[in-house]
Every structure is written in C-alpha cells, then in structure tokens.
Amino acid sequence: MSIVGASVAATALAKTEAASNKAKITDFGLSKTQWSDKLQEIPTLCEMCVNKCAAIARVEDGVLTKLNPNPLFPKSRNMLCARGNAGIQALEDPDRLKYPLIRVGERGEGKFKRVTWDEANEYIKDKMVKIIDEEKDNRSTIGFCAGEGMAEHTYKSFMADKIGSSNFVNHGSICLATTIAGYTLTLGGYGQADLENAEYVIMAGANRAEAIVTPDTMDVFKRTKGRGTKLIVVDPRFTNTASHADKWLPIEVGTDLAFVLALTYVVVSEERYNKRFCSENLSDFEEYKKHIISNNYTPEWAQAITGIKADDIRETARDFMAHAPRAIYYQGRRTAWSLQDYQLRRAQAIFSAMGGGIDKKGGIIFGKKLPLGSHDINSPSYDNAKERIEKSKAASIGTSGSWIAWRNTIIDGTAPYPIRAFFAYKQNPMLSIPNTTKTKQMLEKMELVVVIDTMPSDTVMMADVVLPESLYLEREDPVKSFGGTEPSIALRKPVVEARYDTKPVIEIMRGLGEKLTKPLFEISKKYDESLQEEIEERGEKAVFKEDGYDLAEGYRHSQKTINHHMVSSIYGEEAWKTLREKGVFYPDMDKFFKKISTNEYEYYPEHKKNYSVIQGDLIQEPYHDTCIDIEEIAVLVKKFRTATKKIACALYNFEKRKGVDAMPKWRDELYTPTPVGKFKFITGRHGQFTQSGSANNALLLDLLPENYLWINKRVAEAKGIKFGDNVAVKSKIGEIQIKAYPTEKIGPNVVFFIHGFGAESSELTLAHHRGANDNMIIEDIYETTFGSAAMHETVVELRRV
Amino acid sequence: MMNLNKIFPFKRHTLKSFFEFERTPLNLFMFALSFTLVSFLVYGIAVYIEHGHHAYGVTRQHAWGLLIAMYVFFVVSSTGLCIMSSLGHVFNIKAFKIIGKRAIVGAIIAILTGFLVIAFEIGHPVRMVIYNVLTPGLTSAIWWMGTLYGMYLFFIILEFFFLNNANHKFSKMFGLAGLIVGLAAHSNLGAVFGFLVARPIANGVFFPLYFILSAMVTGSYLLFLIYGWRYKMKFPPEVQRFMVVLAQVLGLLLGILIFFEIWRALTSIYGMMPERGDIAIHMLTSKSFIFGEVLLGMLIPFVIIIFSRGRAIKTMVYASITGMVGIFWMRYDLVHDTQLAPMMPLKIREYSLPPGLVEYTPTSIEWMISIGAIGVAFMMYYAADKFFDLDHKSEPEDKIY
Amino acid sequence: MARYGMALDYKSCINCKACESACKEENGILLGADKHRIWVGVKDIEGIFPDLSIASSGFEPSQCQQCDNAPCQSVCPTNATYYDDNGVVRVNPDQCILCTYCMEACPYDARYIDDRTMTVDKCNFCSDTRLINGETTTACQATCPTKVRIFGDLDDPDSEISQVLRDRDHHSMKEHLGTKPKLFYLT
C-alpha cells in the first residue's frame, strides 16, 4: 500500500527547500556546509503519547524539519519513538482542524460552517445559559471529559472549578484506575518499577516493547536475554515483549488473579517470603496467609483455570523470591481487563511486597518529585451543583468517574437529573469507550456538544461547536515536574507559530470564561442561596472578585508567565533560564549530567538517585504519572486504607463500608470461561500507534497501514480463512469487518486486534474507514469496585465474508 | 543523390513505390500486424513518457523486467545473425556464403530494435552516453557490454556498407571485427548475470558461455524465418542447400544446448543449496520453462531435425516460429529467475506474510513496448528490403564443399 | 579521514520502528511500501501455540551494509556509486542512469528508487544531513529507545565501536559473499 500524503510531500519539500539553503554537496568527499542562519534548535516535549519525551526541534527558516531526542531528560533516556518522529506529519496534516466551526446539518452529519472564536463562544454561551437557567444552576448538568495531555489540567480546572460541574470523566476508568487504586490502597502508592536494577520481572499483560512507557521500556530491554534481567511474560498473546522473555506463559484471558494467588500460595506454603520485611511492613499478614492457604489457591487449582502449568507456577514463584528484593511483579498500566481487576492488582502488590522489594533499588520505588510553585485557580462554590450521576453504580467512584457507567446512566434514564451539555477535550469517546453505539446515543441526547481537538475525529463530527486547539508543537503548556529516582522538571515551548486560527487551551478557556462570566453569575445569583447570602453580607462586587466568580480569572496570564512564576519562585532565575534554553532542569544538573558513551548519559550519580525514600508512612506519593488526580488518590487512601503505616494485606474498611472483599479472593461467578466455538476478544497496542489519535498520520500509517485480526492459524485454516481475508467479528452489541492475520502467536479461543482504527469521520482522509473499531464490539461491561471498564470480557463469533 | 548511389548503392523509390507490395493475403497480414504492433509501441511509449517507471511492474525486489528480457532477446538475435553470417564470409563455409547481406541487415535491425527497447528502460539514457565516457565503471559488465555493442554496431554497419559495395576485402575485415567485438559484447552480457555475487542461481561461468551458444541457435531460427519469408517456401537449389546445412548445424547446436541445460539443471539442484536449489526447482517445474524453453525452444526443432536428418526445411521454417517463442521465454526466464530469491528474507511489517519467491507481472505497457518493438523490426526489414538488394548473386553450381 | 561503521546490539531491538521513521524524516524520504533505507526485519516465529519458540522470534534491524568490497560499486557503469572519504558508499544522483544493476547486485536489498530524481538511493549514514556538519551520530542511532546502534569510526582504536568490536562477539550478514560489510551484529 503506497501512501504519499500531501503532508509528507510538504515535509519533503520543506527538506529540499531547506537543503537548498545548504551548500551543494560535492560529488566526492565531504564539503563544508553552511546551515541557514535561521537554524534553530528548540526544546519541547512530545505529546504524541502519554510519556512526554523531551525532544529538540530542528527548525530551519521557520520550518520544522526534524525532531531529535533531548538527552537531558532523565525520564525519556535520550530517545524518540516512531510517533515522536512523526510529530511533523501531525503538524502538517492537511486534515487538521483549522478554525472554529458550528454545525449546520444534523448532528453527526459532519456539516459545519466556519465561524470566528467570538461567534463560537457566543453560541456556547447562549446554549449554556439556557440550560443552566432551566436546571436552576445545577452546574453538574454540564458533563465534560478530557483525554490525557499537558493542558488537561487547565481545561479540567475550568470546567470543574470555574463552571462547577462534578460530572467529569476521563480515560482513568478505561485505562489504569484499578491498578492505581489496587497498588495505592495496598502499598500507599503506585510507584515505579526500577527496571534498571531489577533482576526478575514478571510482566503480565503489560507489553512494554509495544506499549512504550518511559523509562521502563528503555531500561528493561537492554537487560533481557541473559544480560541481567530475567523476564517472565504472562500474556494470552505472544507479543514483542514475549520475544524478549526468558519464559512466556500463555494464560487464559481474565484469569491473572488465579495465577497470582497461586504464586502467593507457593510462597506462603513454602515460606519463601522475606520474613523480616513482612513482619515489619505488612499488616494483617497472618490473616492473609491463612486466607491463601484455606482457600486452596494451589498451582493445580490455578492450572485448571489459567492453563499455565502448575510446575511453571511453582518455578516462577520460587525464582521470584530467590531474586527478591530485586524482583518485581510489574504493575501494568492499561488494566481495564476483567471484573476482578482490582483484586488482581491488590494481589500483585502484596505478592511483590512479600519479596521485600518495595522502596528499594531493584524493586518498586517511589522516588522523589521536585516541587513547583503553585498556580491556583480560585474556585467558586455552587450550592446547586449536584453530585455526579453514576456515583451509585460502583463501590467507589472518584472524581474521574466511570465513563461507561456515567454514559449508560444518561441513556438508560437512571440519572437523577439530566445531563444536557457535553464538553470534550482531547478525547475521542466515539472510538475510545466500549460500545460505540451507546456513545453515539448519549451524544445525540445532548443539547450542546462542544469538542476541543486538533483533528476532525469521530467525536468532533458529533459536535455542535468545534474549537481547534493548537498542536503541541505550536504552544507552551504548563511546566511539569516528573518524579522518580531521577526527578526533573521539563518544559514545552512552542516550536513553530500557531497555524490557521487555532489557540492553546488556556486561551480557549480565557475566551470562553470572558463570555460566560456575567451571564452565569446572573443565574447563580438567581438560584444559589449561599451566594445570595454572601452577596448580602459583602456586596456583589467583592463576592464576584474574591470568591472566584470571574471565570476567566487565572487564565488571563500567558502560560509562559505562569510557568516562569512556578519555576523561579522555587529555583530562581538561573533555573528558569536553563529550563527555557535546554528544556529540562533539575538542581545540580550542570554538575551531575555526564555523557558516558555515544548513547548513554548519567543524569544523577548513583548515590544521589532516590531509591529508598520512605521514612514512616508514605504520606504523599510524589511520582504520579498516573493521570489520576493525586487528591483523588489521597481521598481513596484516607477513606479505605487502614490507618497503619504498613502495607495493607487486608482492607476491612472497604469491606465494611462498600462490600468489597478485604483480601484478594477468586470469585467463580465473576469469571466466564470462553464458550466452545467462540472467542474472547482482547485489545492492545503496537509501538507505531497511539490509540485513535494517530489514525490519520501519514508516516505512522506507512509503518502500520491497517489493523488486522489475530486469529490462531489452525482455527483460521479450519474456517477457510487465509491471510488478508475479510472476517466479520460479531459480539452481543455489534459487528465489524476486518482482515485476518492467522498466526500461532495467539491461542485457539482468543482473537485480537489493536485499538484506534475504524474511524467513520470522512474528514480524516487517511483514517476514514481504515481498519476496524474495537469499541464497536467491546461490550460495556465494567467492574463494580471503581467502575473501570472490563474490556476483555467480550465474547465474539467469527465468520469469513 | 547520384553520388550517394555510387558510394552506397540503394534502390530508388518514390513514396508510392515504397509502399507498394504484392497484395497477397500473407503480405496484407504482415502489414496489418506490423502496423498494429507499432501502434502498441507508440501508445506504450506515450504512457511511459507520462508516468515513467510507474507504468511498469518492476519493483524494488524485481528491478529488471520484461523490457530487459526483450532487450536481451533482440541483442542475442543480432549477435546470432552476425555469428551465423560470419560462418559464410569470414570463415568461408560455402553454404553460408549466400546469406551475407541479408543476415547482416537482420543483425543491424535487431540491435537497433534492442537499443530502442532499452532506451525506455534506462532511466536517463542521455546521462548514460555522457558518463559512460566521462566516468566509466571499468569493472562493470554493463559498461563493457554497452561500449562493445556500440562498437559492434559501428562495425557491422561498415561491414554491410562494404558488402553492399561488393568490397570483399573490407567487408571481411569489418566482418571479423564485428564478430570479435560482438562475441566480446555478448559474453559480457552473459557476465552481467554471471558476475552477480548476490544471486547464486545466476552467478558463475554458465551465462557468459551459454549466451554465445544460445545466440547461434537464435540466429539459426531467424535465418529459417528470414529465408522462409524471402522465398515463400520455394527455394532455389543453393538456398535449399544452405538451409539443409543450416538445419544440420542447428541440430548440432541444439544438441549441445540441451546438454548444457541438462548439466546446468543438475548442478543447480544437486545439494539443494539455498537460493540455488529451491530457485532451480521452481524454474524447472514452471510452465514457461517446460513448454516455452524446452518444448518450443529446443525439443520440437531438435526432433524434427534429427528425424529428417536436416532435410525437412519447410517444417523447420514453421518450427522456427515456435522456436523463437521458446527463445523469448528463455530470455524472460533468465531475467526473472535471477531475481526470484528475495535478498531480504524477513518480513518488515507485522501484518504481512514472510516474503516467498519474488513475484513479478509485466504490465500491459511493458507488453506493448516489448511486442510492439517487433513491429518496428518488421518495418525496418521491409524498408531494408526495399532499399537494398539483399539477395546473393546467383552463382554457378558450387562444388560440394 | 574516518571509516564509519555501525555495531548493532540487535538483541535489544523491540521493533518499535522509531529508526525507520527517524530515517524518513531526517532524509526526506517519500512514504511508500518499498521506499525505505532502513528497516527492521521480523523473524517468523516457529512452533504451535502454546509451544512457541522464543529463540526463533526476534528482530533484525538492517540497512545498507556499507560494504568495504561493495558489489554495487563494482557493477556501476558510470561510477555513480562510489566510496566517499569516510568509507561510506554513496550514490551521486547526477550520474546515476537508473540501469538498476546495483539493485540486482546488492545481496541485502538495501537499494530503492527515489521517485523524485528517478535515481537509486540508499542509506548513506546520514552523510549529507549529519556527518557533513561534524555530527557523528546517525538519526537511527540517536532515536532508538533501547540504544541498539553504536555508530563510529572503525579506524580509531579508541572509539566506542572499535572497543565494542574487540570485546564482544559479532557477525555480519552474508559474510560468505566477501562483501566485507561495515555493519556488525553483536551477539
């Protein structure tokens, strides 16, 4: 398949034009070349995925021609993956959203007219005023979602704090909420796996070779294959990670909990745990041991459920403990798999802890985080803003909500009040939430849909108002502190001028805030009794000014000014200058940073790395690259952790108040074995694609043109399916068609294809109808502890078409 | 005009008389055929000028396609005709003396057609002429082949010039020069494939040698066709004698060729060396080899000659048509089989099959240019026949040699 | 001057294709199925689920081997393919006539046709984008997440590549053909 996007032609052209500025290359030997005087190397942070790798943009005469890694950033270890390099195509994409749009046809038709920012804001204001007035100032009638990004917080604070809605959903519940919660409630924090020093790593489901996470991916794959780390991969699929493994244990989908419980059983029954560490640091350990033994979670029991041989389970458990404390049961990230996810992560955390590798080199570490000055948003309070609508749908639903439960509550009529407007920023729910059909229904119910994005995704096509965000290469975003053993602060600066009529989020919020402030204040005055009282006491002007009812307040400064304050208030002007020039800063960087070889750098000397940091209780986990609000985690910990300073083997409070099992327990009723003749459908990643965000990127599509269905070779042969044949995959809620990729890398009762394809939006020239959308068939099943999606519970049928 | 005729005798024609020919069904058919083929060629060239190599089915793994095969086909024909012709007036074999002019004209036409075809395959033909002279790659078999074929054309044109003037001293001189340079050029063409270190199926001594043999076979078939067409199967005695001798020589050549091919096949598959044995098996079991190369190209003519002891010359004329088809498949297989083994045996995209043998299908444009070029050759031959007296002078009964 | 080569710790490769995209961006290469200077080969895994052979799976990043005895150079009729002062095998697009003999002669499938100049192109160790400025890293080396590649001067005994080639076992591709590749795969 040959794709010569206009965008690449443009880049190639840019290269040729820039090249013509250089001296002609002579035929023989090297010639000295004069770079254009206008060559700049501008540091920035990549936004093509969640990792935010530091890059240096090479800009020639105002044209971005290359993105190179910035070696100063400890977290990304001097690299830039395929998507990082493809940022240029995202910038040059001719399909980019260029100016504000207002819908003219039916919702979903995709017919828009170009408007000015003012007109767009005016339209939003008119609708919002009507809705909020009719809902008597219940701000929560405005639902809003956000995808992960460095500007997410700016948007979220506006909608949650300034507008005052409590109905926020983000990717947490379709991604990592259960693993964060599981580890935090157990260990006090989610932590980071010290893969640079670990000797034994069990990576279950996590596919670090393809779902790249920094610095984990960089660290572990240099040490596999007998070079220092023994890697055990537990996965129903033979992934690229498995090809690095010392052992690959294929597991029945959704049965990881049984595996971990059996590992625990071996370690408990053979007394291989670190006795001293456990007695000092684990609470309710004796009860846990009894619980494991009395429930007979033997390897033989696990073999029957997981398909992993009992001998392999024993060997793994023994090997793990032999290498402990430099042994890690890897936490994982996108863990929205099964109904027992939460208990699984708890069991993992406890198992890891039993080896003693917590807060130690080679184990799970918490590290340190460099503080930054604060930029607080003055939040007004809204009496009438009701609680989020899906709170009752799971045991503990936090401020990030449960996307599935929240959406389903809207369309099944169980919402206590209507959600009448919906704002989306950088998320594409039409493709990313299980059961696309229901997402469409939900959006159709809205009276106002506002989408802020850079590309005309399927969600954008369902919008009433489209607000184009500047691309990450065109803007400055809030400076961020990245914690870990080698903490640092990194900055994103604009590399090229913002194109077309796009704006960064902070300016979008500012514009919206300016428009909405007065009218919404009037409505609050009408219905909010506490406000009326305050106004009586102190006068309207004072209340308006001091209590934060000026909605644009906090967004009027430029991001640069805010960043300047956040950095220099703690580290001084020199640090700010370094940060601006080099993109990265940490104290003593000039002393510590060394080049060791052509590829390797030392960021902190060994004795300065923060391996063991906990003295006493883990009060606040500093390393939070978890996309979950740190306050939310703190609340969780406060509410449900037992008030000890130890690693919690049992959470009795959680059981008492919410009915959630205090200790990880295997429940047969929560597990559905795959019916004969059918398949469990699982989803995942490849290293060339970031969810649905990169679906239109010409360079990345060159690397991965389409998703294909992984199907076992023998099963395919029996069904007469050959490579490239069209196959219909049908679940209870939908059907898609996709090409087949028969392979022995997957078992006979499992099928897989990667997420992010199958866009319906006709505005995405390259992504339109390319491949298949997994959420068209993934059932909207969610686990009932946190409302996280259980994406691997879907059963499908196949047939050749 | 008068003077030119003295230097270089040719028949004078008006435009009308040029296009006049006896309107037999066969002639009309050939006229229609040539015209159709040339129009294909023109169309193909037009598409190529617009789209360049994208009009062809060549790929990164299979960069040489039908046009290269056709080029080889034509230059082999040319060299073959030159060699067979030299049997007459360089080596003085009496039976072959009569074919001098016609055979050389055929050789010139064939090489010009070959150059025509390759002009639409080489991406930058003008650059080639410049840099082959300025910065020659003296280790390159293509450089030697190109340079030597240039010289060869020069020599055989001169040879024809002197033949046409009945200047036997110089025609013999240039004939010998043309033969030697032609043999050198042609074996270098074989070496283009023989020098390929990366391609075990082609690498080695076979192709430089086999090409000369194959050229002689091709030349023989073409002579059957040329003389069959010239005399419309009513052969005067000296021509008959020539054709019988030709058939016998051809029989010997075919025998040697079959022997070569058998040993080539055996040594290729013995031991099943990777990239050689598997390719050889694929080759030997392919339709183009079995039906094209072997049956049409070698066996049928060989059997006819053996059983008739060379005397069934009319049958041989017809068999030469199929023989030439077989020869075409020999050229195509040569080019295609060399590239069958993928140099990079791994897949580079997850969602693809690991590379098997490299596949190639010529596009319709490639066919049009290739087959269309034959029409040009026909037309050039027609013109040559019109302008020059290509017949031998009828001599008294020769002594039996 | 120098004699550049590359050592690949290919066991670290995770087939993320960062190198492929960095190369395309750095050198302005057109997109398209066959147009690549560098690639990561994926070994087809052997075995039947669940008994798959981990040893049979693996990734082989590769590109032009920059042979010291390059078959592509000896077959070029116009010397458009030549060795530059750094030992890098280069193609001069002004002299290339697109006879594609070099593409036939290359044992590694390293060459392809650049549609814009209609000449043959291949990896040149970033000679005209980096080496020419004195930078001695290639785009593929710099971008790699697991730092598979070590690029350096083979003629400098103190360079990292020379040291690693002395200390560690390595092999090259199709060594039996005598092309003397300057790409070394560390085992």
Which key phrases capture this entry?
heterotrimer, B: 401 residues, mainly alpha, Formate dehydrogenase/DMSO reductase fold, 14 helices, 70% helix, C: 187 residues, alpha+beta, Alpha-Beta Plaits, four-stranded mixed β-sheet, two-stranded antiparallel ribbon, 17% helix
Radius of gyration of chain A: 26 Å
State the major sheet of chain B: none
Overall residue-averaged pLDDT value of chain B: 92
Oligomer: heterotrimer
Helix-strand sequence of chain B: HHHHHHHHHHHHHH
Can you walk through the features of this model?
The complex is a heterotrimer of chains A (801), B (401) and C (187). Chain A is built from 26 helices and 29 strands. In chain A, strands 5-4-17-16-15-6-7 form a seven-stranded mixed beta sheet, covered by helices on one side. A six-stranded mixed beta sheet of chain A has the order 25-27-26-29-24-28. In chain B, 70% of the residues lie in helices and 0% in strands. In chain B, α5 packs antiparallel against α7, α10 (237-269) packs across α12 (287-308) and α12 runs antiparallel to α13 (313-338). With 187 residues, chain C is an alpha+beta fold. Chain C has a single domain (4-40, 54-186), classed as Alpha-Beta Plaits. Helix content of chain C is 17%, strand content 22%. Chain C is globular. The chains are: A alpha/beta (801), B mainly alpha (401), C alpha+beta (187). At the A-C interface, α1, β3, α2 and α25 of A face α1, β3, α4 and β10 of C.
